[in-house]
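As practice, study what follows.
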Amino acid sequence: MELDPMELSNNTEFEEDPEYKDFEGTDVKDMRLEAEAVVNDVLFAVSNMFVSKNLSCAEDVAYINVETRERNRYCLELTDAGLRVVGYAFDQADDNLQTPYHETIYSLLDTLSPAYREAFGNALLQRLEALKKDGQS
């Protein structure tokens, strides 16, 4: 069965949902939402991490401030190309900084923070232990 785009545009089901009210009239892919998801994914393994409110986000770029457990601060740029360090302080984006892109936040933090790597590994072990217990009950 092929979907007719006209039928989809007549479906107002999600427009009634208050969660989507902010998006009415916009066709922006808002990279901020993507950045929030990145933050929520790894917040447990860093000291502090949040989407920058001082650097403007757009549909194609967002900035994330992260403080590792080693107390090092970074400003990360998130684009379709991936994530990269653009500054060594919160809300600092240096256009001249040539740092490599990482496909995932895990890869980037893995290179920046041994404590992140340890916290992530420990969380993984705990999950595996929990699964093992569930399997035995």
